[in-house]
Amino acid sequence: MRVVSAQQMREIEKQAIGVYGIPSLLLMENAALAVVQEIRQTATQMIFKESCKTIILVGKGNNGGDGLAIARHLLISGMDVTVFSFAKTEEFHGDAALNCHLYQNAGGRFFLIEGEKQLRFTRLALHQADIIVDAIYGTGLRGALPSLVEEFVEEVNQTQAYVIAVDIPSGVEADTGKIYRSAIRAQTTVTFGLPKLGHFMAKGPEYAGRVIVDPISIPDQFLTQEEVSTFVLTDDEVKTFLPVRTLQGHKGTHGKGVLVAGSTGMTGAAILAGRSALRSGIGLLQIVTPRSIASQMDLGITEATIWSVEGENTLGNQAWPVISEKCRTAQALAIGPGLGQNTDFIPVLEEVLRTIEFPVLLDADALNLVAQGPEILGWRQGRGSLIMTPHPGEMARLCDCSVQEIENNRLEIAVTKAVEWGVVLVLKGAVTVIASPDGRAFLNPTGNPGLGTGGTGDVLTGSILAWLAQGVPPLEAACLGVYLHGKAADELARDFGWSGFTATEVADQLVKARRSLELIEKG
Ligand SMILES: NC(=O)C1=CN([C@@H]2O[C@H](COP(=O)(O)OP(=O)(O)OC[C@H]3O[C@@H](n4cnc5c(N)ncnc54)[C@H](O)[C@@H]3O)[C@@H](O)[C@H]2O)[C@@H](O)CC1
Ligand SMILES: [K+]
């Protein structure tokens, strides 16, 4: 599904109004009804309550207009609803003004909040509310919230109420997910047309909670325009990337992958990547590793063949003949987990980039070695696809900048570098960005902080290697690997919460994550 900036959404809305003649008031009404449906569902779950008290917070823009239309629907269906408004009746314009009149004509309660006095007066009501709907600011917010609103928002965040944000939580910047000082912390956000970048970037996901997208009757042709090049991965889309197995399939047709990994003290990284490749369905896995850890690898991963390289504790230039021999019959190669940073290995990387014609994935220490002279990426141009999976630290080394700079511009940097280097770039993090050399970017919504533990990156590499070996094209293989990795962690989090599960468990859970995706009915 596409993800848009505030400006792109305004353009889409304008086109829907202009081309199809859909009145803007109808879009606002549909937006309101989508939120009303969510409020009703939430209210019915509060079965212990005799009546559900709802407070709707409104600002002077169209987000406030949505709030006033929501209030009218709740009022006429007999719900206990009150509007707290940061704008006087005469300050509303257009559709919002009409909705303000309709609500007040229906006898709706409307309290104006214009100073400290009203803030004190409304405090008790806020804490007694069961549901609070945030329609103060939507995609039109510029910069920080006004200080009065900010104080109010802090109070809302301290209540026990279930908070539903309209379009985007007030205080979250729609294009960046940035929060200046404070923002509404919602359990659910109902957004309109398409999700906004701010739902997935920076602090946005933490404040938006569960994001529900409602098309509000905007025709599909406007929601699927080519100009929008950022997407969020969904079950329905990722499911189509899975390779199809036939009854005649065997290990020779299920993909052969080569994993170059491990060094003394980092055997685990290689084992985890290998285990994950097997859990992702690879037909045959060959691991190239230093002699010093080969016997441990043999014991640690019984299903793979282990090919050892003479020499020290890390792989150096002697690895090339072994790698090249193993690659003769393979379909994908991954290099990096626990590799160590022996600079003698750099010429091997050059050879790989120059000669291997099938997809190559570089991770971890392979990326750190590339960072010593990123111009070697030039060897790959026009030869075969390359997938790189840096975390922000590795990306900072590759770009010769600070981690903070990467974190502040994750999407932009990932896309710029994917295009510049001609690679599929997987920039890992709370919302992993998968950027394609053609300039498209895919945001991954799965995963949780439980993945912040040693070895999970190795698991991701193994999984992408397996999808590549099974013939999934590089961009799709990266998306599939990242999405299932997060989904596996989300399934583990249902039992363990956001901590305490291990990378090994994530690898083992991958098979169930894939299965759960296969079983999802098309929505
Ligand atoms: N895009 C669409 O297709 C639709 C959009 N709708 C709603 O319209 C919203 C956007 O409406 P608007 O463009 O009116 O924007 P908002 O409702 O977010 O608010 C804009 C108002 O706030 C003021 N403002 C902005 N930043 C401020 C700041 N830091 N301090 C004080 N005041 C500030 C602006 O001057 C403007 O008056 C969406 O979020 C959505 O809720 C819906 O009505 C349905 C259709
Ligand atoms: K809002």
TrEMBL record:
Residues 234-517 form the YjeF C-terminal domain. It catalyses: (6S)-NADPHX + ADP = AMP + phosphate + NADPH + H(+); (6S)-NADHX + ADP = AMP + phosphate + NADH + H(+); (6R)-NADPHX = (6S)-NADPHX; (6R)-NADHX = (6S)-NADHX. Keywords: ATP-binding, Isomerase, Kinase, Lyase, Metal-binding, Multifunctional enzyme, NAD, NADP, Nucleotide-binding, Potassium, Transferase. The keyword Coiled coil does not apply. Its cofactor is Mg(2+); K(+). The keyword Signal does not apply. Binds 1 potassium ion per subunit. K(+) binds at residues 63, 134, 170. AMP binds at residues 428-432, 457. GO terms for biological process: metabolite repair; nicotinamide nucleotide metabolic process. InterPro entries: Carbohydrate_kinase_pred_CS, CARKD, Nnr, Ribokinase-like, YjeF_N_dom, YjeF_N_dom_sf. CDD domains: YXKO-related. GO terms for molecular function: ADP-dependent NAD(P)H-hydrate dehydratase activity; ATP binding; kinase activity; metal ion binding; NAD(P)HX epimerase activity. Its EC number is 4.2.1.136, 5.1.99.6. (6S)-NADPHX binds at residues 62-66, 138-144, 167, 269, 338, 391, 458. Homotetramer. Bifunctional enzyme that catalyzes the epimerization of the S- and R-forms of NAD(P)HX and the dehydration of the S-form of NAD(P)HX at the expense of ADP, which is converted to AMP. This allows the repair of both epimers of NAD(P)HX, a damaged form of NAD(P)H that is a result of enzymatic or heat-dependent hydration. Belongs to the NnrD/CARKD family. In the N-terminal section; belongs to the NnrE/AIBP family. This is Bifunctional NAD(P)H-hydrate repair enzyme. The lineage of its organism: Bacteria, Bacillati, Bacillota, Clostridia, Eubacteriales. The gene is nnrE.
